[in-house]
Amino acid sequence: MDSPASGDLVAAAPAPRIPVHDLAGKLLGHFPVRRIYCVGRNFADHAREMGATAPASKAERGHPVFFMKPADAIVIEGVVPYPPGTTDLHHEVELVVALGRDAPAGELAADDAASLVFAYGVGLDLTRRDLQSAAKAKGLPWDTGKGFDHSAPVSALLPVADAGDIESLMLSLDVNGARRQQSGLDQLIWNVPEILHELSKLYALRAGDLVFMGTPAGVAALQPGDTFDARLGDIARFQGHIVQAAV
Q1: Quick one: average pLDDT of 168-187?
Q2: Where residue 11 falls among pLDDT bands split at 50, 70, 90?
Q3: Which CATH number fits the domain that encloses residue 154?
Q4: CA distances from 116 to 24, 101, 109, 138, 235 (A)
Q5: Does a structural domain hold residue 215?
Q6: Which of 20, 74, 85, 159 could share a disulfide with 16, CB 3.0–4.6 Å?
Q7: Is 10 exposed, middle or buried (0-12, 13-18, 19+ CB in 10 A)?
Q8: Count of domains forming the chain
């Protein structure tokens, strides 16, 4: 087989990079994204609004629900094109956890999980709800409802040393100036160390991984022209708007 000409070679695309700031807003560097893991049904009120049964105690939690998004679904500039193939794009505001250390699959003790965390941010798990619902009804995977282009807007990241006790923080989302979602992170069914421990049973976690931790109740539709303002207490904020995609 002939070797390709140099003009036929395609350079590998660089990993998406998220800015990392300190509390004063000083740019400290950039976080190269490797993978995006997402947690489903991690707030009881959202589980119920989606028609699922929420656990009444830790003993009844079972196993967390995981899915993934492509790394290049990251949006950091705040301009989000309305995706094709849907008429029902939904917002889901979430705590975003950035990992700065590796953990081989199956070897991460729950007590050691927090040491993997490098930084925190706030993001949106955008969802083509009509596609997801149709797939669920047929018992099919719902990747097309979750893992599409521009489906993971995320704020600049704040190093864990500057973040303090995140479980005391409020997660919120305003759309067009009106509050749609709000909950304390103490309401997570599975907290950050628990989720990382559970993920490590399935995957070798690596520096560069992001984990979207799940959303509270209040998910609803977004339309072209809508503005959004996602906040994680006073440590992370992401503002943006939905635009009509170019044809």
Answers
A1: 97
A2: low
A3: 3.90.850.10
A4: 24, 5, 11, 37, 20
A5: yes
A6: 74
A7: exposed
A8: 1
**Percentage of the chain exceeding pLDDT 70:** 92
Q: pTM of the predicted model, to two decimals?
A: 0.92
- Residue 153: give the domain boundaries: 14-243
Asked whether residue 117 carries a pLDDT value surpassing 70, the answer given is: yes
Within-domain flag for 6? no
